[in-house]
C-alpha cells in the first residue's frame, strides 16, 4: 500500500478548508441531483461551523446568488465572485486560501466537470485535494462520473459528506460529536 498517497492518510481538521463552488440559484436547477448536492453542501457548511473549519464559497458571475441553504448556514461567509472556471485562477480566491495557510482543500459544488475539476487539478501540485462526490454534480451525470475519475487519476481523493465528517470527528462521545449527530441522522 502506498502510504504517501493522500487516500491513506487521516484528515487533520487544522489543515482543512472547505471550498463550496458556485452553488447558485440560476445554475442549480439544471444540475443532475441538485437537491442532494444542496442538502450535502449545506450539511458540510453546518459541520464547518461546529468544527471551526474555514469555508470559502465562490460564485460564477451572472449565475445569481448562492442558494439560501448555504448562506443561512454560513452567514459570515461572503462568496468570492469569479469569471474563471478554476478557483485558483481567481486572484481573490488564491489570496483568501493563502491567508488561511491550509494545505488540504475539500471541494464541493458545481459543475463537477468544469469548475470543480479544474480547481482540483490546479490545486494538486501544492495541496491535498478531496472532492465530496455526493455534494458535487454536473448537468449530465456522465460528465460528473468522468470528472471524478479524472480527478482521482490526477491524485485527488474522492469521498462523501459522511466519510469526511466522521474522519474529521475521529471519535464518538464528545460534545462536538453530539452536535454533529443531527447532520448524519
Helix content, binned percent: 40-55%
Order of helices and strands: EHEHEHEHEHEHH
Low-confidence stretches: none
Figure out the total of helices: 7
Shape: globular
**Termini separation (Å)?**
33 Å
Mind telling me the C-alpha Rg?
15 Å
Structural class: alpha/beta
Largest sheet: 6 strands, parallel
> How much β-strand is present in the residues?
15-25%
Q: In order across it, which strands form the biggest sheet? A: 3-2-1-4-5-6
Overall strand count: 6
The mean pLDDT is 95
Structural description of this entry:
With 185 residues, the protein is α/β, with parallel strands linked by helices. The protein is 43% helix and 19% strand. The chain has seven helices and six strands. Strands 3-2-1-4-5-6 form a six-stranded parallel beta sheet. The longest helix is centred in the N-terminal third of the chain and has 18 residues, at 34-51. The mean pLDDT is 95.
Amino acid at each position: 500500500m502506498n502510504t504517501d498517497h493522500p487516500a491513506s492518510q487521516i484528515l487533520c481538521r487544522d489543515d482543512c478548508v472547505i471550498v463550496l463552488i458556485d452553488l447558485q440559484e440560476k445554475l442549480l436547477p439544471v444540475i443532475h441531483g441538485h437537491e442532494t448536492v444542496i442538502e450535502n453542501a449545506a450539511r458540510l457548511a453546518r459541520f464547518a461551523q461546529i468544527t471551526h473549519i474555514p469555508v470559502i464559497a465562490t460564485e460564477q458571475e451572472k449565475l445569481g446568488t448562492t442558494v439560501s441553504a448555504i448562506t443561512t448556514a454560513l452567514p459570515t461567509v461572503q462568496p468570492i465572485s469569479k469569471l474563471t472556471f478554476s478557483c485558483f485562477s481567481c486572484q481573490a480566491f488564491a489570496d483568501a486560501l493563502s491567508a488561511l495557510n491550509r494545505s488540504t482543500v475539500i471541494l464541493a459544488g458545481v459543475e463537477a466537470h468544469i469548475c470543480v475539476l479544474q480547481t482540483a487539478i490546479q490545486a494538486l501540485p501544492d495541496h491535498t485535494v478531496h472532492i465530496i462526490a455526493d455534494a458535487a454534480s454536473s448537468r449530465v451525470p456522465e460528465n460528473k462520473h468522468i470528472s471524478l475519475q479524472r480527478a482521482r487519476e490526477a491524485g485527488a481523493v474522492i469521498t462523501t459528506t459522511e466519510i469526511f465528517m466522521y474522519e474529521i470527528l475521529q471519535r464518538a462521545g464528545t460534545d462536538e460529536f453530539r452536535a454533529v449527530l443531527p447532520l448524519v441522522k
